[in-house]
Specification:
single chain; alpha/beta; Rossmann fold; 8-stranded mixed β-sheet; 38% helix; AB_hydrolase; Epox_hydrolase-like; hydrolase
């Protein structure tokens, strides 16, 4: 299993697990909370068949990566991504982030620039700024995030069960676009993540990306379902075309948060078309 070391805590290394398969232009897939790189399985085969080199990795604290007690903020997440791109010497790269992964894409481009990147995809995005403030009335009340953190502390496994109901809009799609087995798989992956990392990721969702977005100088595709219950479309994706210069928004009608699973055919078609554009 390949790993890249991104730091150290006490006597142990902090290692990021990654997979690097296929040949062609590199596409780096950055997963969402609280899953792992394997959550891209409905995209990986399609992208490989289309002739791309696919790199997935597990965010620190999740999947097969190390579970340190610190570093669950977007400056650190972007630094981990920068280490991966540098160590693998990836160029002409397409960065594709889903949910929390869109924060890595945005902060990376804001902090490190686009020397190694030719395009970006923000799927079910966190940016621009999720917290409701006087200058950000479209955001979400802080009490919502305080409640999430309390639920994780009180009973993390029970919180995960509730979370995935809204992640997949189970009441709408169970038995058609999502199975009990797939939900159980997601729960198992999430339950194996760092308990502290799971908790510490919640404040990172409130990162203000409004200074990063004008720095994005590559063509950018934004994709989101208009029935997203995790990251409300009006607070996130709907606002981004005005904030990213060369961008366009594709809305998946009726799509939940996890459109890369429930609406994979539509998402893959849009993604492939975007990748093929000059």
């Amino acid at each position: 299993m390949p790993y890249i070391t991104v730091g150290q805590e006490n006597s142990g290394n902090i290692d990021i697990y990654y997979e690097d398969i296929g040949a062609g232009q590199p596409v780096v897939l950055i997963h969402g909370f609280p899953l792992s790189g394997h959550s891209w399985e409905k995209q990986v085969g399609v992208l490989l068949k289309a002739g791309y080199r696919i790199v997935t990795y597990d965010r620190r604290g999740f999947g097969d990566s190390s579970q340190p007690s610190f570093g669950y903020d977007y400056d650190t997440f972007a630094a981990d991504l920068n280490t991966l791109l540098t160590e693998l010497d990836l160029r002409d790269t397409v960065l594709v982030g889903f949910s929390m992964g869109t924060g890595e894409v945005t902060r990376y481009l804001g902090k490190y620039g686009s020397e190694r990147v030719s395009k970006a995809v923000l799927m079910a995005p966190v940016p621009p700024f999720l917290l409701k403030t006087d200058d950000n009335p479209e955001g979400v009340d802080r009490s919502v995030f305080d409640g999430i953190m309390k639920s994780i502390v009180d009973d993390r496994p029970a919180y995960l069960s509730t979370f995935f109901k809204d992640f997949y809009n189970v009441d709408m799609f169970l038995g058609t676009r999502i199975s009990d087995d797939a939900i159980r798989l997601s729960w198992n992956v999430a339950a194996g993540a760092s308990a502290k990392g799971t908790l510490d990721c919640v404040p990172s969702w409130l990162t203000d990306f409004r200074d990063d977005l004008p720095c994005i100088d590559v063509p950018t595709l934004i994709v989101q379902g208009d029935a997203d219950r995790i990251l409300p479309h009006h607070s996130t994706g709907a606002r981004l075309p005005k904030l990213i210069k060369d961008s366009r928004l594709v809305v998946i009608p009726g799509g939940p948060h996890a459109i890369n699973w429930t609406h994979a055919d539509q998402v893959n078609s849009v993604l492939l078309d975007f990748l093929k554009e000059n």
